[in-house]
Amino acid sequence: MTTPLFELLEHHDYGEVHLARDAATGLKAIVAIHDTRLGPALGGCRFIPYETERDAIVDALRLARGMTYKAALAGIAHGGGKSVLIKPTGQFDRAALFRAFGRFVEHLGGHYITAEDSGTSIEDMEVLRGVTKHVTGVKPEHGGSGDPSPFTALGVRRGIEACVKRVLGKDDLEGVSVAVQGVGHVGYHLCRELHALGAQLTVADIDPLKAERAQRELSARVVSLDAIFEADCDVFAPCALGSALNDATIPRLRCKIVAGAANNQLAEPRHGDDLMQRGILYAPDYAINAGGLINVAQEVVGYDEAVSRARTMKIYDTIYEIAERAERAMTPTYRVADTMVEERLARVAV
Ligand code: NAD
Questions:
Q1: DSSP letters of 221-235?
Q2: Is 70 among the catalytic positions?
Q3: Which of 160, 208, 210, 334 is deepest in the core (most CB within 10 A)?
């Protein structure tokens, strides 16, 4: 039995979800707007196949909520939104479909601003740009902010510095050992930042070429996908997929800090409690990995790389405050981060 639409919205505590269908192009789009108290909703556009339409709606609801939390904690004047386009099976005209989506976004009048996400590219954002101004992630020559990963990596590095200060009492990363799981876009840039500051790196990646590049260029020690969890290190930095922290992996960790870029690192919230009980400081994922979002949000007001950098550097303060409050209240850091968001939203509540 499928859940009726409004019951689904009630269950996820939503007030606003927009649907668009365009028969000519096959567009089936969902724009979920979770919260706009801090500003217009900003969030990527996902274009992947879904088994059911319900799955697509639930994905949009879940992702848009996450954007509210990420933006609020990053201190940017945006709410949380996300769009999901159900990828058609069979032949379709991609540009025509994205133009239809762009018209839909334009009709929302700036209440929702879109960006790249899984399954979409800068080319798609360029197509959207032809029909709506409420799009980010366009080409730099059109005011775009470029690849977000270096900014995400910068923010993660700042978060690691804050954790190192709290746990090891050190003001720099000289000699600090960091195990990085996944050296793709963000992981590689993070390794470069850490290496430049004197950290010792251990890395693992499914793609041996990526791991070898970190070894060759940044003197990283390469270990197997499995051994990365047991690396003897100060910091474990998950920069691959979600759910890296689970019942099987947490007991194997030999680090004092978990701080990385991956989204949804905790398989379940209780794993954040588990880390605290083991005396491991966990930097909440959406707090530490907001650099890319901070950078893209800058496009809305006129892109300025120096401002993006300065704002991303402040992730140090956010992570430091979370760690401090968590220690004082003897509460897991992920709960403190959620509380800080709820406090910020309550301050602007009408
Ligand atoms: P990416 O695909 O470029 O990199 C992921 C890397 O992890 C790849 O090199 C892949 O081979 C590797 N990998 C996959 N499974 C692995 C495993 N089991 N063990 C070790 N390595 C594995 O992606 P990315 O853009 O670098 O993003 C990394 C993570 O950070 C994702 O969870 C993403 O959602 C999150 N994130 C990225 C950004 C950004 O700016 N790109 C922003 C916020 C959050």
A1: EE--TTGGGG---SE
A2: no
A3: 160
Instruction: CATH number for 149-290+317-342: choose from 3.30.110.30, 3.40.50.720, 3.90.1150.30, 3.40.50.300.
Output: 3.40.50.720
Q: What is the pLDDT of residues 162-198, one digit of tens each?
A: 999 999 999 999 999 999 999 999 999 999 999 999 9
What would the two tokens of residue 94 be?
């991609």
* CA within 13 Å, CB half, 94: 10
Rounded to an integer, what distance in angstroms lies between the CA atom of residue 137 and that of residue 241? 22
Is the CB of 227 inside a 6 Å radius of any atom of ligand 1? no
Whole-angstrom Cα distance, residue 75 to residue 295? Answer: 12
Going by alpha carbons, the residue nearest to atom 8 of ligand 1 is 184
CB contact at 8 A, 180 and 187: yes
**pTM of the full predicted structure?**
0.95
**CATH top class, domain 5-64+79-142:** alpha beta
